[in-house]
């Protein structure tokens, strides 16, 4: 996990509609950048729906919400449509941002060890500096926690 006070790594990734987004385009706004393992899984759906439910409050505070996983653009589009997600979801199939933000790590599941995305949420300030980093994310309450930090 990256540490608070460091410059957030730049990225250039396609969203659920195939449009390219960069971190630089969000200068001047706070960014909640959350990394999650997989579209349409129970925990990831709870997390995304939590951000969707509180999205108006995030925008009132001048913050944007961006989700990133290694799923495809098409998978993200289905995820957006299935759950009426109002925010940007970026596809990182090459793991460039996932690795740059140090969330591609060894995971243990039922005794099996594999590499995967560790659910992590960063709050990035208007100048692109990480001001909050959490790798002990509870999917169902992440949105409320982050709303309190913005």
Q: If you had to describe this structure to a student in words, what would you say it looks like?
A:
By secondary structure, this protein is α/β, with parallel strands linked by helices. Helices cover 29% and strands 30% of the residues. It has helices spanning 42-60, 73-83, 96-100, 142-149, and strands spanning 12-14, 20-22, 30-35, 63-69, 88-91, 104-109, 112-117, 120-124, 130-134. The strands form 3 sheets. The chain has a 5-stranded mixed sheet. It has a two-stranded antiparallel ribbon with strand order 1-2. Strands 6-7 form a two-stranded antiparallel sheet. α1 packs parallel to α4.
Helix count equals 4
Shape descriptor: globular
- Range of helix content: 25-40%
Q: Strand portion, in percent? A: 25-35%
> Roughly how many Å apart are the termini?
20 Å
- The value of Rg in angstroms is 14 Å
Note the main sheet: 5 strands, mixed
Q: N-to-C SSE series?
A: EEEHEHEHEEEEH
Q: Strand order, main sheet: write it out.
A: 5-4-3-8-9
Structural class: alpha/beta
Low confidence ranges: none
Global mean pLDDT: 95
Number of strands: 9
């Amino acid at each position: 996990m990256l540490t608070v006070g460091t410059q957030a790594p730049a990225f250039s990734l396609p969203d659920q509609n195939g449009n390219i987004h960069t971190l630089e385009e969000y200068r001047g706004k706070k960014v909640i950048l959350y990394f999650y393992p997989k579209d349409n899984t129970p925990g990831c759906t709870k997390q995304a729906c939590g951000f969707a439910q509180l999205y108006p409050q995030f925008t009132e505070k001048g913050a944007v919400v961006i989700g990133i996983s290694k799923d495809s653009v098409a998978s993200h589009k289905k995820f957006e449509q299935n759950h009426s997600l109002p925010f940007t979801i970026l596809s990182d199939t090459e793991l460039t941002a996932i690795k740059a933000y140090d969330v591609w790590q060894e995971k243990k599941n039922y005794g099996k060890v594999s590499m995967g995305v560790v659910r992590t949420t960063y709050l990035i300030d208007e100048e692109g500096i990480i001001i909050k980093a959490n790798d002990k994310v509870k999917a169902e309450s992440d949105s409320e926690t982050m709303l309190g930090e913005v």
